[in-house]
Amino acid sequence: MALPQILVLFVASILGGILNAVAGGGSFFTFPSLIVTGVSAIQANATSTVALWPGTIASVGAYRRELKKQKRGLLLLLVGISLIGGVLGAILLLRTSQAVFVLLIPYLLLLATLLFAFSGPVTARLRTRSINKTRLSWRSFIGLAVAQFIISIYGGYFGGGIGILMLATLAMMGLDNIHEMNALKTLLASCINGIAVVTFIIAGAVVWFQAILMIFGAILGGYGGAYYARKIDPRWVRLFVIVVGIVLTIYFFLRR
């Protein structure tokens, strides 16, 4: 791999780590950069997932207190559903032909961009609601399980925007405590991505030199660069990610 390609991947992973720590949307940088540097689409998606997953795991620890408040049965069910859905989505990706996945990329990026664009207003709305309701009815419990299964399959397949999908689902099912919702979202996302990572590794779909390079970059961005990024108005950070998502979506539509 040439030095310019190495620099592109490393810078993209640093940006991805920063954005995941501040506003989310890191895959908007890691996934396209891998494709631009010559990695095939499916391997790029798998490698991007591997590169960004350690940062998700680190975030789970910050929510230990909120997770302890959840019923063990609810956690075990949602974790189990997330693992099953995540591995099914990953297998579905691996069984998709490169040609078909390339055709799907702009639509997946468009979906992820729209979900990210609406995540701010949705989260802000949730923060204004009461924080007292944390119990689910049986009907809501079943609805949440079904929705989480579908989200998990999408997460294992591509994953862009699963955070806002889970937050919206939890809100519709009656949960109002935004901190506990974020805790559940982070834990379940780490499960979905984690089982997808294992599946991709077993299938040999990960390009390891690029993955290791980007893991270091993402960690550097997440733990170092985020300090400076937080000094910027979050609205500008979010706008930047949305613009990048739109540009990439148009680019991949035009290159088909």
Features:
256 residues; mainly alpha; 11 helices
**Share of helical residues:** over 70%
Rg for CA atoms: 18 Å
The major pleated sheet works out as: none
> Pairing-aware structural class of the strands and helices?
mainly alpha
Order of helices and strands: HHHHHHHHHHH
- Residue fraction in strands: under 5%
Distance between termini?
Answer: 25 Å
Number of strands: 0
User: What count of domains describes the coordinates?
Assistant: 1
- Point out poorly predicted stretches: none
Q: Characterize the overall form.
A: globular
- The residue-averaged pLDDT reads 83
- Helix segment count? 11
Q: Summed up, what is this model?
A:
The protein contains 11 helices and no strands. With 256 residues, the protein is mainly alpha-helical. α3 crosses α10 and α7 packs across α9.
What does this structure look like?
The protein is mainly α and 256 residues long. The chain has one domain (3-254). 81% of the residues lie in helices and 0% in strands. The protein contains eleven helices and no strands. The protein has helices spanning 3-22, 27-36, 41-60, 64-68, 72-94, 98-127, 138-157, 162-172, 178-203, 208-229, 234-254. Helix 2 (27-36) packs antiparallel against helix 3, helix 5 (72-94) packs parallel to helix 9 and helix 6 runs antiparallel to helix 11 (234-254). The longest helix is centred in the middle third of the chain and has 30 residues, at 98-127. The chain is globular and about 55 Å long. 42% of the residues are buried.
